[in-house]
Design goal:
By secondary structure, the chain is mainly alpha-helical. It has a domain of about 100 residues: Glycoprotein, Type 4 Pilin. Helix content is about 40%, strand content about 5%. Strands 1-2-3 form a three-stranded antiparallel β-sheet, with helices on one face. The radius of gyration is 29 Å and the shape is elongated. It starts with a helix and ends with a strand.
Length: about 150
Amino acid sequence: MRPSKSKIFRLNEKDSGFTLLELLVVLVIIGLLTTIVGPQVMKMLGNAKGDVARVQLENIGIALDLFNLDVGRYPNQEEGLKILIEKPGALERWNGPYLKSDALPKDPWGKLYIYTHPGVKGTPYSLQSYGADGQPGGTSENSDIILK
């Protein structure tokens, strides 16, 4: 004979819930996981922003090289990166825009990339981001990202 439905769904007093000790153990485990995993996740997010900045710098570098092929020179310091988006009146061979965006590109931390012409060590230009802190130098997420 089968037990009635009311007996099946009725809980014993022993099975009525979790004990305080069980809840504390679960909370301690969650706390340990958060302290161990949390910093690693934040570090990975910081590294991802650095990777995004490197890819963006490479894309801007390609745009600068295309500009150079069309015009025969790299933008001077005064023209900067803006010339990759907006055609100046005097350049006849300008065949842009060389960047898809209508605005100057910003790094993942919301700051403009730094363009220098001429670049360092005899290079035609230098492109960089100062990282999360927006200041030269730094370590980890605050380190400078330079297109080489």
